[in-house]
Amino acid sequence: MTRLTGKTAVITGGASGIGLAxxxxxxxxGAFVFIFGRRQDVLDAAVAExxxxxxxxxGSVVNETDLDxxxxxxxxxxxxxxxxxxxxxTGSMVKLGAITAAHIDETFDTNVKGTILTIxxxxxxxxxxxxxxxxxxxxxxxxxxxxxxxxASKAAVRNLARTWVEDLKGTVIRVNVLSxxxxxxxxxxxxLGEEGLKAYGAMTGFQRMGDPAELGAAAxxxxxxxxxxxxxxxxxxxxxxxxx
Length: 244
What we know:
alpha/beta, Rossmann fold, 7 strands
């Protein structure tokens, strides 16, 4: 499969979980990938696994200077940018009545502010035919117990795509949302625990957790010209969780 041959991609949160699985799939399909994340040791391990068509830049999506370094590296080595997968995110379980301002700030800074800044900084390098992918969540549609801030932040991400379709008219740059549900990632394990993962997976139509590779395949579709007439859309890869 070579749908992404010659294309350059940036994946935030690209060193683990859905981001790493997507980086693997993008490279398999011919792309050159820059992964971006906060933990240098995890980035180094990911690049060693991904091979010569991957680069890593350390930083946070809420830090404009870090994002400037990321895109400067892309420009220096590749010149232009075809795909941005704004995948960095965070979330934890806090019930209504125990929510703090710090919890709200942490969640919205990464999931909303970070997503906006990631795309703002990328646009000068992107041209006609570019693809922007935002990571949503089934929780942004259905809500989830004790996930007030996370669910609200992902609903906001869904609306970013709708709004940016209008802002991007005339550029032929597409923006779509990839919304996972019960996927066995490090973030899900930390938030839910082993028993929580089993219970969450049992809620899907397949009665199992999804594999990050299944999300990577969907991300590759949204990154490729095969989804060329899709923009403002939400692609749910959630085992039916938000559909039933």
